[in-house]
Structures are given as C-alpha cells and as structure tokens.
Amino acid sequence: MDDDYLENVAERIALPTRFHSVEKASPFTNCVECETELTDSGVPYLIEKALRGAETVYEFALCMTCRDKLESSLSKESLSRIEEMYRSQMGRMYHRYFRLRRELQEDSFRSLPDGLDPWLSNCAVTGQSVTPRDERIEIALCQGTELLLGDFPMMISESTMETMMELLSKASRDELDRWRDENLSPSPEWQELLGGPRVFVM
Ligand SMILES: [Zn+2]
Q1: What confidence tens digit (pLDDT) does each residue in 102-144 have?
Q2: In a domain, 156, yes or no
Q3: Residue 56 included in any domain
Q4: Is CB count within 10 Å lower at the N or C end of the chain?
Q5: Residues whose CB falls within 8 Å of the CB of residue 39, separated by 6 or more in sequence, listed in order
C-alpha cells in the first residue's frame, strides 16, 4: 500500500461496533505496537481482525507508522511477489472500487445492518464470496472515531491468505510470526490452529 492511503476515501462513518475491540467491548484506543493514542490524535490506523465463524482469533489496531515499519521488515522479493499478485487482479479490484463508490452514492449500503456487507462479503483480491463460518480477515482504515470508506474496509479470504503466505519468503513469514508473538500475545487456543494465526499486511 502506498502512502496515499487517504486519497481513495469516499466517505467517513462512525466506527461500527463490528470494528470495536471484542476483548475490551469498546473501540481500540492505542496502537498495538507503539501504543500511540488513536482516538484524539488524528493518526490514521488500521484495525485488523482474524475471524473464524463468530470467533475472533485475533484483533489489533496498528498505526500507519508501525504498519509501514512492519512492511519494510519483509524482504523486497516477498513484497514484489505480493505486488505482482495485486497487479494481476488490478482490473477486478478497480471494478470493486467503482461498484462500492456507486453504492455509496445510491445510499443502498445504509439499509444494511451495519452498512458494510458490500465491502466485506467478498474477498477484496479474488472476489470470492465466503460463508460466515469461513476463516477470514477483515481490515478497516480509521482515523479518530471514524471508519473511512473507500478501498477499505476489506475482507481477505482464507485461500487468498494462504496464497500470500506462499508468496512470502521463509524469512518474511518468520518476521510476521515474530511480530505476532511479540505484539498479540497469542492464547493457547491459537496454537491449535495449523501453524498459528497468520498476520496479514495490506
Ligand atoms: Zn504504532
């Protein structure tokens, strides 16, 4: 993702409870890594949740500075392979973007329970739909107490996550695992998951 992540923001809405912290039963207030305050500082940040059915496998808020730092810890080869994957899906991703813009203009998203189904019902990369039971990652771009609608929020399906993990070098995968273990203090249940939960960098 480039630094111009705020450029494609079409609208801002109050942060839906779906992106609140399940653990704290309230909105995220600090970056999981550097602990920067997020509610009043105006620092843009991502909220990422890995879900399996109704269960939240992990969740965190990450400021964009730490997000960029995490990305730069991955190997150039890994990043260029992921970029190539995005490029091959570019046409489809643009199509998705313009369809969502149109839905925003038509206000149709407002009639849905939290209005986010058009963003989150299909994998942002492949367009594949998932059932509520499937494992998936949901990512939102936020600022203060607002969720920014545009390229985000997005859902990444389990099969796309697997494809991306295969594109990463072993060193990059290890780096993501290290980051996860350091910042997300995985619970014992997580260890039951094959290879542990995967952290995703958009
Ligand atoms: Zn941070």
Answers
A1: 777 776 656 555 678 778 888 988 888 888 788 899 999 999 9
A2: yes
A3: yes
A4: N
A5: 27, 29, 144, 145
Q: Which residues contact 174 (CB under 8 A, 6 or more apart)?
A: none
- Distance from residue 61's CA to the centre of ligand 1 (Å): 8
pLDDT at res. 16: 92
What predicted TM-score, i.e. pTM, was given to this entire model?
0.86
**Residue 33 CA to ligand 1 centre (angstroms):** 5
Q: For residue 64, how far is its CA from the centre of ligand 1 (angstroms)? A: 7
State the Cα–Cα distance between residues 92 and 127, nearest whole angstrom: 8
Helix, strand or coil, per DSSP, at residue 86 = helix
- Domain housing 98: 13-185
Give the count of beta carbons closer than 10 Å to the beta carbon of residue 124.
Answer: 25
Question: What is residue 127's three-state secondary structure?
Answer: coil
Percent of the chain past pLDDT 70, that is, above it, reads 85
